[in-house]
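Title: Request for sanity check on RidA family protein prediction

Description:
We are preparing a figure and want to confirm that the structure record we downloaded matches what your pipeline produces today. Could someone re-run it with the sequence below and paste the raw structure tokens into this thread? We only need the token string, no images.
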Amino acid sequence: MAITLLNPPGLPEVAPYRQVSIASGSKLVFVAGQVAWDADGVTVGEGDLAAQVEQCYLNLATALAGAGASFDDVAKLNVHVVGWTPDRMPALLEGIARAGARLGTTPVPPATLLGVAALDVPEHLVEIEAVAVID
């Protein structure tokens, strides 16, 4: 595995999130922001943040697999949520947990969470992009 995740002393621990990833691989994989579209381009979970987060993670897993990678190889995520407020955190975490259960992983590398005004189409509540490192 080309990625080691850790929480260095002196930084807060927010389980199961990690503050740092160390990449030792030789190939970078950049996955474009994934939204809650299914394979036919139909929005999944309209109005349901948790369902859309889950679909975004499933789409990321598909994209990563296409590059010969998995969530174990992800060094960094960027998460963009429309109209973000802290009270939406439970729905975000629920979607991540549901995706993790379906994928058999805990997809929590270092991430940046950004609130945004809008995404590509009004039905989309979240977009997630990934950077992975593979050998």
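Thanks, this matches our download. The CA atoms of residues 1 and 59 lie 21 Å apart.
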